[in-house]
Amino acid sequence: MDQIIIHVDMDAFYASVEIRDNPELRGRPLIIGSLPHERGVVATASYEARKYGVHSAMNIKEAYRLCPNGVYMHPHFEKYRAVSQQLHAIWDAYASASETIALDEAYLDVTQMAGSWERAQVFAREIKRRTLEELHLTCSVGLAYSKSAAKTASEEKKPDGYFEIPTAEDFVRLILDRDVRVLLTVGEKTGEKLHRAGIRTVRDIREKQQEVVRLLGKQGVWLTRLAFGEDHRRVTPYNPQDAKSIGREVTFQEDVSGRPFLKDVLFLLALSVERRAARVGLCGEGVTLKLTYADMKGITRSKRVASTRSAWTLYREAEGLLDRTADRPVRLIGVSLTHLSDQAYRQLRFEDILHDGAAEEEKETQAALLRLGERYGLDFAGNLDKVFRSDTLYRTIEYMRRHRKG
Q: 351 catalytic, yes or no?
């Protein structure tokens, strides 16, 4: 057998962690994300909540309409990241290569480590057992000959499921008369496009290959191959350098007017981006500003810069981009470092000969942080690590919004 792949997917991960840590939540419809009176969406929902029709990415107001008696809570991302590290430590022990898809999901290449399908079966069941016994959480596991088949297998018996697809023939038999959405990369829009063309099942794709390619181009070529069980992709460990950008954004609970406050938020976001970039050893040669206005119209503005990850440079460039946009109420603001590379360089300027540019930027950053703290009655000194956690940064910015003057 060319490959033996395991796909592991946790069951309602965020909700399951919260239920594990607070047994009083067990059996209740739990919705993690925004609160009903806030703007935002559902991050995940317990299986009890899903019975009401609540699902990930649903607008929180719609979720509340469907499930008014649910338990709603904000996510605790730092806790989920810590649990994720424990999960991947268990899973990675069985694989020669591990491809992390999300905090709660991964592909594992066990071809060499297992050496046989029978041994891989043992690995798959060991992963389920250890995940439950050591972390008190359930996962669904798929064992298959390819990545797409392993993903399909893990979804076959959710939650707390286990399923095997040994060969391409087994995969085709399983999905042949299912809706086209069973195939990887076919989302709602692609599915509707195929349906309008009279292509509703995997069997239809096999019988109308030219039509599928005409409609979808390269994706159509991929889908026709997948409809015959062909998927030769390898498990590829995540490399931070493969990322196209590093960014942070925030959605305000109420639309924001006033450039001074938006610039204060940009400064905090730029600091957060700098920390993320430093953590993975990357710099960038581009800065992108993202805005969504109150009418939901979104825009992006970008600029090329000399290689950097400096928060001060990010902030000043994003500030300049902001000054060239329409001054209207804003719903969302974000900043990203783009054109990433691990090869940092800085063009030598005349002023750099006389002054240490990096030291000057650090002074500017610290002075701006001090002014920001004084403006909003916040003490950032010694607390930045805590501030830049996803949930804390959001709460800090909301506090600033509510307490700003003018």
A: no
Considering the candidates 18, 105, 274, 317, report the single residue annotated as catalytic: 105
The secondary element (H helix, E strand) that includes residue 279 is helix 259-280
Residues 6+ apart with CB under 8 A from 396: 268, 378, 387
Hey, CA dihedral for 152, 95, 91, 43, is it positive or negative?
negative
User: pLDDT per position in the chain (406 positions), as tens?
Assistant: 699 999 999 999 999 999 999 999 999 999 999 999 998 899 999 999 999 999 999 999 999 999 999 999 999 988 999 999 999 999 999 999 999 999 999 999 999 999 999 999 999 999 999 999 999 999 999 999 999 999 999 999 999 999 999 999 999 999 999 999 999 999 999 999 999 999 999 999 999 999 999 999 999 999 999 999 999 999 999 776 677 899 999 999 999 998 999 999 999 999 999 998 988 889 999 999 999 999 999 999 999 999 999 999 999 999 999 999 999 999 999 999 999 887 654 444 444 444 455 677 888 888 888 888 888 888 876 666 777 776 688 888 999 998 887 5
C-alpha 171/C-alpha 226 separation (Å) is 10
Query: What is the three-class DSSP state of 217?
Result: coil
CA distance 178 to 253: 41
Q: Running DSSP on this structure, what letter comes out for residue 68?
A: T
Whole-structure pTM value = 0.78
Give the Cα separation of 263 and 318 in Å (integer).
9
Domains of the chain: 13-77 (3.40.1170.60), 172-227 (1.10.150.20), 240-403 (3.30.1490.100)
Cis peptide before 159 (omega within 30 of 0): yes
